[in-house]
Description:
Blueprint: H1 6-18, H2 26-34, E1 55-58, E2 61-63, H3 66-76, E3 83-87, H4 93-99, E4 104-109, H5 112-124, E5 130-134, E6 147-156, H6 161-164, E7 167-179, E8 182-190, E9 196-203
Parallel strand pairs: 3-4, 3-6, 4-5, 6-7
Antiparallel strand pairs: 1-2, 7-8, 8-9
Helix pairs in contact: 1-3
Amino acid sequence: MKISNTPQARFNMIEQQIRPWNVLDTHILELLTVVAREEFVPAAHQALAFADLEIPIGYGQFMLAPRLEARLLQDLHVQKHERVLEIGAGSGYMAALLSHQAKSVLTLDTHPELADLAYTNLQKSGVKNVEVRVADASQGLLAEGPFDAIMLSGSVAKVPKQLLEQLTTSGRLIAIVGDEPIMSATLFTRVGDSDFHCVKLWDANAPRLENFAETSQFVF
């Protein structure tokens, strides 16, 4: 089922979900009108393309709610000269948004089927500066690093040190970190060879990225 009035639904998404979440960067808001989110949503869920919820894309993975996507994008502050790594390609939507801000984007997914989906969607949208790859980002350094910015499009219990080490000096990594019921969007900035500044920005829960270690749970 498709949306009967896509322009109005997109407008409502921006004005009723995203602006109230303190996404006020005019460039980000413009991007949300330029990059057609509905083209990255599975056909079975087209009616939910602009809804304030997570959309299943298969293999236990989800597109984040639009307000989370927009806020993460705004708070990472990607610049035109920067190289970006995204972990969790999903349907390719976040990579498409990042492509308009960055020099280049490398997006990874552990599922070949989702990597193929992201690649197909990005090609249909005319995106030229994104590489999609099947890889497990939790397992070590990438030869293409370091990166100016890293986006985790899902939550983790803790950001592994090897990911932080893939940042350039002054590079940033943003992720939703913690355990339910409270997780926090957290921004890490590399300030030296082994020094990182960390700040919690806002609270939000999100589905887990696969293969990242969980925190130990004590059982009484």
